[in-house]
Write a structure and sequence with these properties.
alpha/beta; binds zinc ion; 17 strands; binds N-(iminomethyl)-L-glutamic acid; 9-stranded mixed β-sheet; Urease, subunit C, domain 1; 434 residues; 8-stranded parallel β-sheet; globular
Length: 434
C-alpha cells in the first residue's frame, strides 16, 4: 500500500521547538521556539519526515510532490499540536449554581465543605451510566480539538469508590480509542474524602491505598496517580502515603499542590520526585526552589485562578527560578469549566507574567513532558507524530495579542486533517489513527 503523504507548505512561521524531546525546557530556553520562516513539513504515514524552508523541502521531494496532499499555510503560523496535561475530562452534571454562589461571596472550599463542589459532581458521576459519561466526554473532546489540542491527560476522581473510579477510567480509555484526541490517564481516587468517610478520613486513605491503587494498576487503567493535597482535603502526610503506594505499583506521582493555602505541597512533590506539581498558587519560595532542584514540572492553571477570582500562580518567578513550567486548562465543572488552551495561554501572559514564546513552550513540549510524552509529541521534529495546528495568524505573538479568540484554523492528528477552516471534519466515532 502506498504511503499517505502530507506536505504543509510555506508557513509564515513554523514553530519547531527542536531539541526538546529529552527534557522539558527551562529558563531562557522556554522563550526560544526555533522558528523557521517560510517553513514546510513533509509527513509520511502520520510521522514527521522532514522540516525546512519551503524551497529546500520542495526540492528534496520534487519527484514525489504529486503523491502528497498539499496544505498551503501561506501567511499562517504552524505549531505542534497543543497538549493539555491536567484535565478532569470525564464527569456528569455542571455547577453553574455554585458559580453564582461564588459570585455572591461564597468560597470554593465553603461550598465543598457543605457537600457541594467535588461531592456534587461525584454524586452526579456515580449516577451516570458509562454511555452518558462517554457522550459528555466526547463533546468536550470535540471542543478541545477545535481549539488545537491533540493530546490531553484525564483524571478520575469523581467516583471515589473502586467501582466508580474504574468506570471513569474505562470511559477515558474508550474515548481514547474512538476519538482523535489522545488521552493519557491518571488515577485520582484521592480527590476528596467522600461523605461516607467524613468521620474517619484515614480509613478512606487506606481504601485508596489497599483496594483502589493495586486494582487500577493491575488492570492497567492509569499511568499516573494524583492527590488533592490541601487543608481540609488530604494532608501532606496522607498525600505522601498515597503517592508512595502508587509508586510501588508503577503509577507515577502527580499532585494538586498549594492551590488554596500554602501547605508544603511543592516541597512534597520535590521530595517524592513527582513528575509534576499542579496549581501552586500559594507555593512557598522554598518549595519552588526544591522543585527546580528536583526537576519537577509546574503545571500552572491560570484559568482556575481566574475562575476562582484568586491571584494566579507566579509563573514568572518559577521560570526565573529554573522550574520547567507547563500550562493546562484544568478542565473541570467546579473551578475551571473551559476547554480553551488558547485562552489559557492568553492568561499565562496577562496574569502570570509569561512571554508569548514561553506560553507556547508551556502548552506544547513542556506539557508533553508533564505526561511523559516528550519523545513522541510536543515539538516538530523528524520521527515525531504529525500532531500539528495551523493558526490563522502570521506570527506566534499575535496568538496572545489578539486574545480571547480561537485562531486554530486547521488541525492535523497523526498527519490526518481533523479540523479544517475551524470546522471538525473527522468522524469522532471512528479512530482513524494508529
Ligand atoms: N482542586 C481540586 N480539583 C479540581 C477541581 C475539581 C472540582 O471542583 O470539581 C481542580 O484541579 O481545580
Ligand atoms: Zn485538577
Amino acid at each position: 500500500m502506498s504511503k499517505k503523504i502530507t506536505f504543509i507548505r510555506n508557513a509564515n512561521q513554523l514553530v519547531t521547538l527542536t531539541g526538546s524531546s529529552d527534557a522539558p525546557l527551562t529558563g531562557k530556553r522556554m522563550d526560544q521556539l526555533n522558528i523557521i520562516e517560510n517553513g514546510s513539513l513533509w509527513i509520511e504515514d502520520g510521522l514527521i519526515e522532514y522540516i525546512g524552508v519551503d524551497g529546500e523541502v520542495a526540492e528534496r521531494y520534487k519527484d514525489r510532490i504529486g503523491e502528497a496532499e498539499i496544505i498551503d499555510a501561506t501567511g499562517k503560523l504552524v505549531t505542534p499540536g497543543l497538549v493539555d496535561p491536567h484535565t478532569h475530562l470525564v464527569y456528569a452534571g455542571s455547577r453553574e449554581n455554585e458559580f453564582n454562589m461564588r459570585l455572591q461571596g461564597a468560597t470554593y472550599m465553603e461550598i465543598m465543605n457543605k457537600g457541594g463542589g467535588i461531592h456534587a459532581t461525584t454524586s452526579a458521576t456515580r449516577e451516570a451510566s458509562h454511555e452518558v459519561l462517554f457522550e459528555e466526554g466526547r463533546k468536550r473532546l470535540d471542543q478541545f480539538l477545535l481549539h488545537g489540542v491533540t493530546t490531553i491527560e484525564a483524571k478520575s476522581g469523581y467516583g471515589l469508590t473502586l467501582e466508580h473510579e474504574i468506570k471513569q477510567l474505562e470511559v477515558a480509555e474508550q474515548l481514547h480509542e474512538q476519538h482523535p484526541v489522545d488521552i493519557v490517564r491518571t488515577f485520582m481516587g484521592a480527590h476528596a474524602v467522600p461523605a461516607e468517610y467524613k468521620a474517619d478520613p484515614d480509613v478512606f486513605v487506606d481504601r485508596v491505598i489497599q483496594d483502589m491503587i493495586p486494582e487500577v494498576a493491575r488492570r492497567n487503567l492509569a499511568e499516573f496517580n494524583d492527590v488533592f493535597c490541601e487543608r481540609g482535603v488530604f494532608t501532606p502526610e496522607q498525600s505522601k502515603r498515597i503517592l508512595e503506594a502508587g509508586i510501588k505499583y508503577g503509577l507515577l506521582p502527580k499532585i494538586h499542590a498549594d492551590e488554596i493555602e500554602p501547605y508544603e505541597g511543592a516541597e512534597l512533590a520535590a521530595s517524592i520526585g513527582a513528575v509534576s506539581a499542579d496549581h501552586l498558587l500559594r507555593a512557598s519560595d522554598k518549595g519552588i526552589a526544591m522543585m527546580a532542584e528536583a526537576g519537577v514540572i509546574a503545571v500552572l492553571l491560570p484559568g482556575t485562578a481566574f475562575f476562582l477570582m484568586a491571584e494566579s500562580a507566579d509563573g514568572r518567578k518559577m521560570i526565573d527560578a529554573g522550574v520547567p513550567v507547563a500550562l493546562s486548562t484544568d478542565c473541570n465543572p467546579g473551578s475551571s469549566p473551559t476547554v480553551s488552551m488558547p485562552l489559557i495561554m492568553n492568561l499565562g501572559c496577562l496574569k502570570m507574567g509569561m512571554t508569548s514564546g514561553e506560553v507556547l513552550t508551556a502548552s506544547t513540549i513542556n506539557a508533553a513532558h508533564a505526561i511523559k510524552r516528550g519523545k513522541e509529541i510536543g515539538s516538530l521534529e523528524k520521527g515525531k507524530k504529525a500532531d500539528i495546528v495551523i493558526f490563522d495568524v502570521p506570527n506566534y505573538m499575535q496568538l496572545q495579542y489578539q486574545y480571547g479568540v480561537n485562531h486554530a484554523h486547521t488541525v492535523l492528528k497523526g498527519g490526518v486533517i481533523v479540523v479544517d477552516a475551524g470546522r471538525l471534519v473527522c468522524n469522532t466515532f471512528t479512530r482513524i489513527l494508529n
